[in-house]
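Question (not urgent): is this output format expected?
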Amino acid sequence: MKTLRFPLLLALAGTSLLATSCFDKDKEAAKPKTPTELLVGKDWKLTACTVSPAKLTASGRTSTDYYNDLMASYDRDDLIRFEKPDVARQDEGPTRAPGTTTQVYNGTWSLTEDDKVLNTNLEVLGRSSYDVLELSDNTLRTSGWRTEAGTRYTYTYTFTKQ
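Got this back:
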């Protein structure tokens, strides 16, 4: 009977160690991703954009749906990719603006103000800052403004992970 105690204790200790190591792995898996981890290493495609106040469309009506009513179709398939440490790339996608031969534009990016502001500096778009409204594994939603002909317009951009 004494010979069984030692193997039984070893088996119980081994099971205990295995269970503890599984719990540690679960804790690591449950650790939330940082905003940088959520942003980098994936292609983001603009899938919606609104503008406020409404703007005049080519057909003469006003609209706040910038993506569907005001944006050129060749801009809707563009991708943007953020990489570490601060590299950003805008890919023109399958369609490009007439006369455009460049496929990829380079630039930089950073998150500031406790990861609540996304700053970009891209060859084709220049320097911009956007408030981060939502950032998850699959969605990036930002907001920014610019003044055009004396009117301040607020744009809200929704990007989806590709």
